[in-house]
Amino acid sequence: MKTDFLIIGSGIAGLTYALKVAQACPDKTVTILTKTQSDETNTKYAQGGIAGVMKVGDDSFDKHIEDTLIAGDGLCNEAVVDFVVKEGVERIEEIIEWGAQFDKEPDGDFKLGKEGGHSESRILHHKDITGKEMERALLEAIKKCNNIKLISHCFVLDLITQHHIGYLVTKSTPDTECYGVYVLNLHTRKIEKIISRIILLATGGNGQVYRTTTNPSIATGDGVAMVYRAKGRIENMEFIQFHPTALYESGVKGYSFLITEAVRGEGGILRNSEGIAFMEKYDSRKDLAPRDIVARAIDNEMKINGTEFVFLDCREIPTDKFKEHFPNIYEKCFNIGIDVSKDMIPVAPAAHYSCGGIKTDEWGRTSIKHLYASGECASTGLHGANRLASNSLLEAMVFSHRSYVKSVKEIENTSFKNNIPDWNAAGTTAPKEMILITQSVKELKLLMSDYVGIVRNNERLQRASRRLDLLHQETETLYQKTEVSPQLCELRNMITIAYLIVKSAELRKESRGLHYNIDFINQDSILQNTIL
Length: 532
Ligand code: FAD
Ligand code: SIN
Fold this sequence. Notes:
Layout: E1 2-8, H1 12-24, E2 30-33, H2 42-45, E3 50-51, H3 61-72, H4 78-97, E4 112-113, E5 123-124, H5 130-143, E6 148-151, E7 154-160, E8 180-185, E9 190-201, E10 212-213, H6 222-229, E11 234-235, E12 240-247, E13 254-255, H7 262-265, E14 269-271, H8 291-305, E15 310-313, H9 319-325, H10 327-335, E16 345-354, E17 357-359, E18 371-373, E19 378-379, H11 392-410, H12 435-451, H13 458-481, H14 486-507
Parallel strand pairs: 1-2, 1-9, 2-6, 9-18, 10-13, 17-19
Antiparallel strand pairs: 3-5, 4-5, 7-8, 8-9, 11-17, 12-16, 14-15, 15-16
Helix pairs in contact: 1-5, 1-11, 3-4, 4-11, 6-14, 9-10, 12-13, 12-14, 13-14
This protein binds flavin-adenine dinucleotide and succinic acid (SIN).
């Protein structure tokens, strides 16, 4: 198959870019691939909303920029922060034109929420299901474009580069190029190649590397792992953001339901197992301090009291107001026996967002030619060492727009690569025991949660590294002799992601932002990105 533009991922980053290139180039073909259903994305689960300075008043671009820089703890690219905040407004207006609806006050102004690290209320939202609404609007707009083809249940295995036509590609190869991808078509169970002139990776996050995460099962870091295998540049992978308040449900494993930070913006207060509000001990901004601080404070309180959760007390929020802004959370809690007007909600931190990823320039271009990246899989310089809440939907829209601007020019001078060989599956057979894969996934999640979580130290990182080596060797051996499956490929990708997180964490000889290593608390500051 050949397509002019190939987009891997159907979340906010992939769909925004697809719409733009399709509308700008009606004579060109645009193909979107997604590994499960088209709406099964991190985007769909976004609750709090999207940060934007939509009207002058108390808020200003400067304040949003300042908040982003403070959260990023010295590692943000200031030029990127500046243009994302300013261009973001136009991108929000665009998605509204495409049909997304955000809650409004009776006078027609947007209802604006507040989240940790924000000095003003500036979060546009659609109740507590903002991502679902944005995904809906984008998918509907996509359906109206005749030159877009969205193919679900198509698992991308690897990027095609010069390596596949017999050249040696290393990290120092100056002009590595991407010509397309190999995919496992889950409808036919066949491996196909898709050749393209421009490729955008929009494969999302990697929360599944941890035992508890707010991310759905698709978030296995596939795009980052593919770029690393193709010898592209990856940066800042040690900065994994743990959301402070995921719902704690005894016995529920894997995906954790999020209790949006906007609940604390409306007055929710964190209390420990003794009912004591503890955040003022840790930061003057109390419950609305940036996420890294709140997550570490909760982690500490759980350790002091020997508990697996703390409480979020929403009893002071008028029930009508809670139900109106957070109907989804109200219902979820109610269904498991928690009446938020009377009961406190048990919460614990869970892996939530990857601040690092595929290194891009200011136009979404990666270190590999013809390959762009946008959304959570990319590291654009916006988030630095810690992302400010509700800045990621914004980042995805701004960078997908910028990637579109460059790629519609680049495509005019880019042709399809011919003579790409088929996927080589020689010597592989059907898997005999799935337990070999499922058990390794469990081991991986455990070791990452136990040794590479919110608080780290050198010894834990070394342990994680040694255990990962073994998992890596065993999985590579299995991969060489086994027919590929999504489960096996995701395991392999997650091991690569875990390796990148651990390696970057080991390279950073300081505590900064989300990377908190108790062996480096009062060290000299190293203001550098970690590039692998
Ligand atoms: P995603 O939306 O995750 O889409 C990834 C796509 O890539 C999927 O279609 C998937 O199928 C596809 N894919 C991945 N690997 C492959 C493969 N191998 N082959 C084929 N397809 C593949 N951010 C905010 O700004 N505000 C919020 O309020 C907010 N709330 C959040 C709440 C939750 C519970 C979560 C999990 C995240 C939240 N975030 C929020 C973060 C934000 O939602 C994500 O960072 C953002 O939606 C990522 O969008 P994306 O397009 O990069 O990736
Ligand atoms: C939330 O709603 O608390 C999540 C917001 C985000 O991750 O940006």
